[in-house]
Amino acid sequence: MADGCDVSKIVTTFLFNTSRLAPRTTRRNIQAAVCCGLMAAKRPLDDKDVDFTPLITGSVAEFYIEPMLPHVGDIDLMYHDNTLLAIPRGHPPPTQLPAEFHNYVCVVEIIDSYLPGYVYLPARYLLTQSIDDGKYKCFEYGERACSTNSTHDDRNWTIHGPAVFNEYNNYKSLLPVDTVRCVRCLSWPLQAADWPTRHRNYGWPDSATLDRAVSNGCDVVGVAHRLCRQHEWMSKHQHRLSFSRAEIVLLNSWMPVQQITYHILRVYVKTQRLTESADNSEPAVLSNYNIKTLMLWACELKPRSWWIENLNLVRICAELLHTLSVWLTGTRCPHYFINNCNLLDNSLSVGSVAGKLMSIDEEYLSSWLMNNYIRQCAQLCPFYISRLFDDVSTSVKLQKAVSEVVRWRVNTSLYNMWRAVDFAEFFISAVVSKHSLTVRSCDYWMNELTKIDKHLSVCFAAVALLHVARKLSINDFSDQMMDILSTVLGHNSSECCSILPVCKTELNTSEMVEFLLKSAVEHLTTFHQLVAHNFGSVVTIVTTDFEALYAYKRGDYQRCLQLSTQNVHTLLYAVYIVYIRDVNMALPEFIQLLDDDFVSLTALTLIVDPKCRRNSGYAYITQLTLSLYLMTQCQLKLRHSVTSLAHALLCIKVAQRRHSRERTLDQLMLKLIERKVEMMLH
């Protein structure tokens, strides 16, 4: 391999060229947004008046880069209920609160424990909101019982734990979800009062960033210090201050080099198993929070020139690992926000880890990153690229191999973004169908998806309209359904104004359902048009498949034939790969648009084939299969000539060869229409 200096430069260039600015539409962002919508719809079993307000935290919220290797291990979600608020000790009770809070709020006071960063929460006030002016009146509690640190109610949350969304675990790109219940504090805590004003030599964070961080306040999470977990009372009442909101602000203010460094440090300590004990019998020596703390201090204590002059990511990482070694040797990891708070456990044996970190030099780390990071990236590429690493004996050969990985990464970026959008359509449809909508959850769905990409809110609106239509076909129209429609369509005020008055007229149920189906199809068509506009250069997408399906449903066979024939010709001989898992036809929302033959075959497939029940992907059909089905059905109903039917049969044969045998419903649907055509021809 090339000498250490050359490798260090190659590694630095590679990391910068492959750690692109993250597109807003990623699988992890979509899953996190969906989790927010689900959490907003949850309520404790014992109090129907309590609503939860979720917040996406952790890596999903903190990273704005997208490295080539995965850098997000799970979705972190904090949530607080709207009937509980924490205030710093001695602060007056608030007279106004954000709209998310209930009109009755219990206020607890943050009281220090003998361990820095850990507190108790005795009840202090009860706030009640005045109907006249919206301000809160205060009543002081006589007895100040401390809140317990129980973070969950007695049921198993659908969204909580490492096995979250068990019903979707067959989809490989889902991440586990970590949820933490907390108590919201709108003020910056007294325990970290020195942080905003302490002297900083190099101007980070700047005043604007400091103001944003402080204005977000903090949270208090229910967990006892390790030393107190055996104590009967403290184990149940001790809480820890959380600065997740401030950390999101701070990490998003980092330069790209700092975010990449943070990513590489996390990869190194995880790969070297420094964040876990050898046999999992002892507490881990390090955690990701130790690495985050190391980076926060480095960003504050190092000048900008240290990061960007003669840029060398390997050198930067090696020096920071040496700092971490010094911390371990002294068993001291100073909390970034709270003075005199040590994040390292004095009881841990850290000598061997400290020695290992101190021995790391630039040459070793360059070689390690090449063998354990860049080579893994190469495995994601086609074989002709990964095999280039079989011989990297010279700088020229190494540079060529690495450059090919970078080139492939750049060339596939748009396609990968499309895959994320395709995943969004799948995931939104599946989750809306599985979990009934509420006004509150719709509001979170729309807001969170709009933050990612406003086009995704169009997709959600379409599925939500189908969901409401399905509910209406079972139950009468209710005020709740009207409120849901107002929320979903309210993000487009002109559309809301035109549709809702129609809903309020004396339409019967069937007319209302038909109206909502038509609106949903229009939304889906708009969404597919937007997707085709953005990604038509890398994948073939037709935009009128749902329009054709709706035309077929209402008996407009000539219009359906026109659209579906055009779609078949576009898809059948497409230049680009048609990798479209369009919609799950087994979902009740979409079954409304299908005819009896289609529904019966789908149901029979789910009954007979176990893998279709285990893996929802097997119940999907491509746009090509759907278009062929509609085209053939229309030809049969319109009694087209033998020549037309023979051409349809030829198209079916081509589609059968193109579709994998593993796509059960696709193959059965094609076999059904093939049989129908053959019977007509004979």
What features would you describe in this structure?
With 682 residues, the chain is α+β, with helices and mostly antiparallel strands. Among the domains are: 42-253, no CATH class; 540-682, no CATH class. The protein is built from 28 helices and 13 strands. The strands form three sheets. A six-stranded mixed beta barrel has the order 4-5-6-11-10-9. Strands 1-3 form a two-stranded antiparallel sheet. A hairpin with a 6-residue loop joins β7 and β8 (136-140). α7 (256-271) crosses α10 (313-329) and α15 (413-434) runs parallel beside α17. The longest helix has 27 residues, at 509-535. It starts with a helix and ends with a helix.
Structural class: alpha+beta
For the largest beta sheet, what order do the strands appear in spatially? 4-5-6-11-10-9
Helices, by number, come to: 28
Q: What is the CA–CA distance across the termini?
A: 69 Å
Number of strands: 13
Poorly predicted sequence stretches spanning 5 or more consecutive residues: 153-170, 577-581
Mean pLDDT: 86
The helix fraction, in percent, is: 40-55%
Largest sheet: 6 strands, mixed, barrel
Strand content: 5-15%
Compute the CA-based radius of gyration.
29 Å
Judging from the principal axes of the Cα atoms, what is the shape?
A: flat
